[in-house]
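Title: Comparing notes on inverse folding

I've been comparing how different people in this forum approach sequence design from structure. To keep things fair, I'm posting one structure and asking everyone to reply with a full sequence. Here's the target:
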């Protein structure tokens, strides 16, 4: 079991993706300072109900560990950091410190790193390449299927609750099935028959 400080937010951090944060509350400034000193991680979890204040929010039990990828002292006097999502975790037990910071005993949720994209979901890599091209971003090279999935979930206009649901799916192929159904519902793609022919 690993003990991890938590940063509850109203957004979802996904493995392999980055999140910019403005830090101003003393408990989180102390947390970030400690993580930087010890080169350690913290956990980002989605708020299920309530606000980003001590003892005033319910959080989901699955989140993503984060490294501090970059930091800067902003012109407004706040500390700005870029958090890089690393791996999924599940909260087993939480503790609240005197300063209001929540820590948790967590278990890392490992998943197979499949490089090959199943043929029926090959369009997802093409969709990711298209979005990156539209945004003027460099095209990623050979990346794993799970990385393709997380990048799409990050870039597509999906609600936080849906992103959380996808984060919680333990298997990449099952995650693709759920995302595929949502892409159809959103009209991003047409229905794809088993033989791969669009209707």
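Reply #1:
Here's my take.
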């Amino acid at each position: 079991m690993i003990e991890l400080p938590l940063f509850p937010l109203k957004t979802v951090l996904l493995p392999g993706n980055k999140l910019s944060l403005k830090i101003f509350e003393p408990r989180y400034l102390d947390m970030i300072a400690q993580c930087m000193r010890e080169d350690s991680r913290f956990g980002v979890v989605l708020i299920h109900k309530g606000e980003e204040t001590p003892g005033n929010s319910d959080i989901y039990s699955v989140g993503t560990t984060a490294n501090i990828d970059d930091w800067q002292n902003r012109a407004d006097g706040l500390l700005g950091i870029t958090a890089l999502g690393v791996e999924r975790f599940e909260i087993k037990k939480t503790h609240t410190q005197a300063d209001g910071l929540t820590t948790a005993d967590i278990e890392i949720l490992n998943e197979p790193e499949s490089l090959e994209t199943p043929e029926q979901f090959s369009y997802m890599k093409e969709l990711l390449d298209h979005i990156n091209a539209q945004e003027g971003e460099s095209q990623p090279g050979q990346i794993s299927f799970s990385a393709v999935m997380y990048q799409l979930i990050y870039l597509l206009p999906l609600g936080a609750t849906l992103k959380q649901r996808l984060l919680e799916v333990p298997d990449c192929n099952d995650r693709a099935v759920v995302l595929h159904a949502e892409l159809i519902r959103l009209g991003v793609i047409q229905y794809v028959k088993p033989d791969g022919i669009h209707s």
